[in-house]
């Protein structure tokens, strides 16, 4: 008890700051801070005012000295003019004198300007005395100029000179005496003495100005020093006060929070909450934090359930299933990876409704799960496709176990009687493909793809499930088939066996064709019509796809040229650009040369790039898009959503058009209306694309329900069997081009 009391005493002493009322302390801190800040502001203003005063004193002195020098300069100019006229007798010097005299009379304004500067009376008397002496001197100079005019016998006098009156004696003087008298004054000592008096008074005035400036500047500098000292002291006070508040803030808030966080860390319990401690305000904050933590944990659990629990079957999602498979791969375990789907499942949804379809999915999951052994797992990957693993390596055993699963499924289906209302018995059958995983396998995507390939080859619908297709058998057949196609491909290109098929793109706003996509078909002289999914992957692998791209682009340009020449309606056509061109320099330039050869407008060509470009080299992908757009073509991202696209990718790629992959719609949740997940994803993609100023085209659309949904969401165009299948060029011209109005217009 004594030890506990001592600990409590230490804790109380350690957190005495926490007993303070933070609101009141904050109010006091705010008042003091504002006061010190106001003092600092006042000191700054005083310092600025003192500096401004110094500047005004200096500018005032400069102005006054300038005015005094203006008076002195005017007097000197007059003297030079008089001297030249007296020495030469040329009237132009007299005119210069008179012009300068007129300018010099503005000294009165200069004197008035000095008076407005607030000069002392003694200073003004000095400058006015200089002005008075100068005025008298000008009168005498005019008198001398009149005498010289008389001596030179000039008959016509300027007005100012004619106003000068000569004395009776001067009038009787000879011309020589008049000149002599004028020269005696102008070049005499009396004239020099008068000039010296003017200069002396101006110098006295200037000296007085500088003396007063020194005194005023000294006084202003003392004020500046005082205000700057006050500013420094106030700044130091503010700094000390802020440091003090930081100490208070640490003791009252930070340290209690630090102790709580340390307690949380030491506890090693994610559900542990912060212990209430510290002042009342901090306790309220901790309570709010604990409540928020509780809500976050609840939401995290909801998110985890969404990610890991399938809403229809209640079992693993694909994410959870992939995690389990990854664990088995890391443990170097060998097992069979099985891909299974329900034959004609879309018919169940169409005839019996989506609720019955969901019940079938749940029944299939339960049947597979019932046959699972320890550590084996199953998941609904998407729609009606299931993946599960069996820890078996023998093909016979694998076939037996899958047959057992199928028999269990049939019994479960008959027992629950899900889709037999008002109809004869519906036989539920499945397609099944198996890939036997070896220790060397590491990529779950490749593993799933191989199982899917095997599943798609299982087309025996006569019996429910007579056999499973294993990937190993297919691989040998596939390699043989690929070798045959490789032997034929160059010959086929030379003989133009590759045909252009066009699939229209329909604008949803008016249901009119706004463009088309050029698709390739191989009409082999040996094997007949070969579907693209057989030869395109092979050409991608061996690089022949680049030759095929150039060939298809040339054919499309030739077709468009024919439309233009024959006066048909013309629509833009998009061509596919393989990612194999990614590392080719000048690839767009080569396409551009073909386009220019056929004189096709750039706006009639669109390049489609698959999203695989993004994940190989995003920087190069952006560069290629830039080259395409710089050349004047439009650029679209094809098959968006077919791989591992995310909404974050959209902001990184400056394409003009976004094409949503058919996987968003065909056999998915949107078409069945099972859940809002797929709908929300499509809405989000379209909304973000619109915000990024991209057009949106949806591929693989086969129902009017999807058409109306996409139109409501702002999708621009659709491409799918609901409107048109891919067709030869002749059929396209007959069925599509003639339907368009406004002949010659390009959409």
From TrEMBL:
The chain crosses the membrane at residues 27-46, 229-253. It comes from the Bacteria. The keyword S-adenosyl-L-methionine does not apply. Keywords: Membrane, Transmembrane, Transmembrane helix. The keyword Cell division does not apply. Residues 333-474 form the GGDEF domain. Residues 482-740 form the EAL domain. Pfam families: EAL, GGDEF. PROSITE patterns: EAL, GGDEF. PANTHER family: CYCLIC DI-GMP PHOSPHODIESTERASE PDEF, SIGNALING PROTEIN YKOW. This is Bifunctional diguanylate cyclase/phosphodiesterase. It comes from Faecalicatena faecalis.
């Amino acid at each position: 008890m004594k030890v506990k009391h001592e600990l409590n005493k230490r804790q109380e002493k350690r957190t005495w700051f926490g007993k303070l009322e933070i609101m009141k302390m904050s109010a006091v801190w705010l008042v003091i801070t504002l006061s010190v800040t106001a003092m600092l502001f006042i000191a700054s203003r005083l310092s600025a005012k003192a500096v401004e005063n110094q500047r005004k004193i200096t500018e005032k002195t400069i102005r006054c000295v300038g005015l005094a020098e203006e008076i002195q300069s005017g007097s000197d100019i007059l003297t030079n003019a008089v001297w030249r006229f007296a020495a030469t007798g040329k009237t132009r010097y007299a005119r210069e004198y008179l012009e300068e005299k007129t300018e010099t009379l503005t000294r009165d304004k200069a004197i008035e300007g000095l008076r407005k500067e607030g000069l002392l009376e003694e200073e003004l008397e000095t400058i006015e005395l200089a002005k008075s002496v100068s005025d008298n001197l000008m009168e005498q100079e005019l008198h001398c100029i009149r005498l010289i005019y008389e001596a030179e016998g000039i008959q016509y006098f300027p007005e100012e000179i004619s106003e000068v009156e000569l004395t009776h004696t001067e009038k009787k003087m000879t011309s020589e005496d008049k000149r002599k008298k004028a020269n005696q004054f102008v070049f005499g000592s009396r004239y020099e003495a008068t000039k010296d008096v003017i200069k002396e008074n101006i110098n006295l005035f200037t000296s007085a100005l500088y003396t007063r400036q020194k005194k005023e500047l000294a006084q202003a500098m003392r004020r500046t020093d005082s205000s700057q000292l006050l500013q420094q002291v106030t700044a130091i006070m503010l700094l000390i006060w802020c440091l003090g508040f930081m100490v208070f803030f640490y003791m009252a808030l930070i340290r209690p929070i630090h102790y709580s966080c340390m307690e949380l860390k030491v506890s090693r319990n994610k559900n542990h909450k912060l212990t209430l401690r510290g002042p009342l305000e901090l306790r309220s904050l901790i309570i709010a934090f604990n409540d928020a933590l509780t809500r976050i944990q609840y939401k995290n659990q909801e998110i985890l359930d969404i990610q890991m629990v399938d809403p229809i079957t209640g079992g693993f999602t694909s994410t959870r299933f992939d995690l389990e498979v990854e664990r088995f791969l890391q443990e170097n375990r060998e097992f069979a990876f099985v891909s299974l789907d329900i034959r004609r499942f879309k018919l169940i949804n169409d005839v019996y409704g989506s609720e019955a379809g969901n019940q079938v999915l749940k029944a299939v999951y339960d049947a597979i799960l019932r046959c699972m052994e320890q550590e084996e797992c199953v998941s609904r990957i998407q729609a009606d496709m299931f993946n599960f693993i069996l820890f078996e390596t023998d093909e016979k055993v694998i076939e037996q176990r899958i047959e057992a699963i199928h028999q269990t499924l049939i019994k479960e289906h008959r027992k629950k009687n899900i889709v037999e209302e008002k109809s004869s018995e519906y036989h539920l059958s499945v397609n099944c493909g198996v890939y036997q995983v070896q220790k060397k396998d590491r990529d779950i995507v490749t593993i799933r793809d191989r199982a899917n390939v095997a599943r798609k080859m299982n087309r025996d619908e006569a019996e429910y499930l007579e056999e499973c297709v294993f990937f190993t058998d297919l691989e040998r057949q596939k390699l043989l088939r690929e070798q045959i196609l490789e032997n034929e491909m160059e010959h086929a290109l030379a003989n133009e066996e590759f045909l252009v098929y066009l699939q229209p793109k329909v604008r949803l706003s008016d249901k009119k064709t706004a463009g088309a996509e050029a698709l390739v078909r191989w009409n082999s002289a040996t094997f007949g019509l070969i579907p693209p999914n057989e030869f395109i992957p092979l050409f991608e692998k061996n690089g022949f796809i680049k030759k095929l791209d150039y060939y298809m682009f040339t054919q499309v340009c030739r077709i468009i040229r024919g439309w233009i020449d024959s006066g048909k309606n013309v629509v833009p056509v998009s061509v596919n650009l393989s990612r194999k061109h990614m590392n080719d320099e000048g690839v767009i330039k080569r396409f551009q040369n073909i386009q220019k050869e056929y004189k096709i407008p750039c706006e009639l060509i669109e390049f489609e790039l698959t999203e695989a470009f993004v994940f190989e080299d995003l920087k190069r992908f952006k560069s290629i898009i830039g080259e395409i757009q710089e050349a004047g073509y439009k650029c679209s991202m094809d098959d968006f959503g077919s791989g591992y696209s995310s909404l974050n990718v959209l902001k990184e790629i400056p394409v003009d058009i976004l094409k949503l992959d058919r996987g968003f719609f065909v056999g998915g949740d949107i078409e069945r209306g099972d859940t809002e997940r797929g709908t929300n994803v499509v809405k989000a993609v379209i909304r973000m694309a619109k915000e990024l100023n991209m057009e949106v085209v949806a591929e693989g659309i086969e129902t009017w329900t999807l058409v109306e949904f996409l139109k409501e969401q702002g999708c621009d165009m659709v491409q799918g069997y609901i409107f048109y299948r891919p067709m030869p060029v002749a059929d396209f011209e007959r069925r599509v081009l003639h339907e368009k109005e406004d002949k010659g217009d390009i959409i």
